[in-house]
Amino acid sequence: MAPARQVLVAVIGAGGVGKCFLSQLEFLAKKRPSPKLVLSYICTSKKAVYNDDYSDVGLSSDVLSTLASSSKAPLSLPKLLDYLVKSDSKAVLIDNTSSQDVADAYPMFLARGISVVTPNKKAFSGSRQLWIDIFNVSGAYPGAGHVFHESSVGAGLPVISTLKDLVQTGDEVTKIEGVFSGTMSFLFNSFAPTSGSGGKWSEEVKKAKELGYTEPDPRDDLNGLDVARKLTILGRLAGLPIESPTSFPVQSLIPKELESVASGDEFLQKLPEFDSQMEEIKTAAEKEGKVVRFVGSIDMATKEVKVGLEKFDRSHPIAGLKGSNNMISFYTKRYGDSPLIIQGAGAGGEVTAMGVTSDLLKVLAQI
Ligand SMILES: NC(=O)c1ccc[n+]([C@@H]2O[C@H](COP(=O)([O-])OP(=O)(O)OC[C@H]3O[C@@H](n4cnc5c(N)ncnc54)[C@H](OP(=O)(O)O)[C@@H]3O)[C@@H](O)[C@H]2O)c1
């Protein structure tokens, strides 16, 4: 069969990750003349840029200003699918949003031959039925699209591809554990450092927000759900039928009294009243010569999945993490007592987009 002359790339989302992806796509398109990569559609939640003849909408710096001044509304997801399917070329959908609606549409795109690449966790960590619907179709028959989502766990770190390789080559994963949230990593590395006393909890949360490490409302990080979603994805890939990210114990660091305050700002304002709770936890760990960290773990033998605070010796690799780094350890039969450890920046536009762009390369190798 003759190689495809061109592949259409349709991008939903042009925020922190989306913008970095566009510049990496520009690099890739220049570096890799065949098949020609054509950015034929891009949208945010309010605006879109595309041409009826599927011609390239422009390079990254230009297309962002075209997008900002566009008067076109985004196509609905079924219309976007029709638009892509009607072209003579293969097409890839890049979902750079955190939208559940877009995630829910993946099976529809895959079934019509459109591959999907995304850092969006929602499709893989929500209902088990959506997971089943996606993987029943992805690559399942000639003409079906393929799905890749490396950056949905650990940003660009090769976490998902490594776990898939372990499982597909017949290794037996016994345990997965680590620090899965850049925000939590940053907070605990500065609240309970291995040397020195660290700051007050509420001050560290405020600082993390000011540095852009937290969601606009820090409770969206402190509720532990982001870590629970990542463990759901890894657990499912390792073979556990996890029902949802709320089907196992997840420790929330939001004081009960502040769960329902109206805004993130009000939450931050009242958080100092609860500093003593976190201080007690830190002191209890210090008395044992340890530090406290927010971690997640999956025990494959007992099928136990949990997310929350744990104490670690100061010499433990998890205790010594720096900044907002992630660390994910895979314990397997082959690796024995020396787990396979992946460590590095687990957040940030450029590194997350790298995972997306390298997934696009995997799609290109398949189609
Ligand atoms: N940033 C990181 O370090 C990181 C790391 C790992 C994974 N991720 C994941 O990467 C994804 C993108 O993150 P981000 O930081 O780039 O987010 P972001 O800066 O908030 O950007 C999101 C983009 O998606 C658009 N969007 C949202 N809902 C949409 C919809 N229904 N239809 C069309 N466009 C929609 C937004 O448009 P509007 O501006 O018009 O709303 C915006 O352009 C998320 O799933 C996130 O969890 C991010």
From TrEMBL:
Associated pathway: Amino-acid biosynthesis; L-threonine biosynthesis; L-threonine from L-aspartate: step 3/5; Amino-acid biosynthesis; L-methionine biosynthesis via de novo pathway; L-homoserine from L-aspartate: step 3/3
Signal sequence bounds: none
Binding site for L-homoserine: 215
Obligatory cofactor(s): a metal cation
Binding site for NADPH: 97, 121
A Pfam family per the record: NAD_binding_3
Active-site feature positions: 230
Cross-referenced PROSITE patterns: HOMOSER_DHGENASE
Homoserine dehydrogenase catalytic domain: residues covered: 158-361
GO molecular function, one term: NADP binding
Residues that hold NADP(+) according to the record: 13-18
Transcription listed as a keyword: no
Entry keywords, A to Z: Amino-acid biosynthesis, Methionine biosynthesis, NADP, Oxidoreductase, Threonine biosynthesis
EC number, UniProt record: 1.1.1.3
InterPro entries: Asp/hSer_DH_NAD-bd, Bifunc_Aspkin/hSer_DH, HDH_cat, HDH_CS, HDH_short, NAD(P)-bd_dom_sf
Domain Aspartate/homoserine dehydrogenase NAD-binding: 13-135
Top EC class for this record: oxidoreductase
PANTHER family the record matches: HOMOSERINE DEHYDROGENASE, PTHR43070
Family label: Belongs to the homoserine dehydrogenase family.
Protein task: Catalyzes the conversion of L-aspartate-beta-semialdehyde (L-Asa) to L-homoserine (L-Hse), the third step in the biosynthesis of amino acids that derive from aspartate (the aspartate family of amino acids), including methioinine and threonine, the latter of which is a precursor to isoleucine; production of homoserine leads to a branch-point in the pathway as it can either be O-phosphorylated for processing to threonine, or O-acylated for processing to methionine.
Protein name: Homoserine dehydrogenase
